[in-house]
Amino acid sequence: MLKGGRKITAKKQIGRFIVTVWPSIYISRLGKVDIRICEPNTWGGREEDGKLYTTSMLLAAEDHTVLRSYKQVPDNIISSAVEFARTFDSQALVSS
Asked: What pLDDT shows up at residue 86?
């Protein structure tokens, strides 16, 4: 999960949302990859654009099962996020 001492992730802006594909944060999903969809908010983690973002939805990359849903996400954003996750070798994210 770490390469050169840091977690490997893939990130993309889709509309006002930021999609991050990275190793799962759940202990029950070791070796698997999650798709995190975040949107701007008045609190949360600060991204490179200087805005604060909170997680709206978390999906399992392998079968797109919703792991957590905190807020409604438009279908076109979910589809774009899943397509983005398919564009690279997700095994590179979880190999040691």
From this structure: 87
Q: CA–CA separation, 4 vs 20, rounded Å?
A: 19
Q: Backbone phi, then psi, for 94, in 5-degree steps?
A: -110, -5
Bridge partners of 66, per DSSP, are 59
- Check pLDDT > 70 for residue 5: no
Q: Whole-angstrom Cα distance, residue 2 to residue 36? A: 18
* The three-state (H, E, C) secondary structure of 32-83, written as one string: CEEEEEEEEECCCEECCCCCEEEEEEEEECCCCCEEEECCCCCHHHHHHHHH
Return the sign of the alpha-carbon dihedral for residues 82, 9, 34, 71. Answer: negative
Q: Residue 8 carries which DSSP code?
A: -
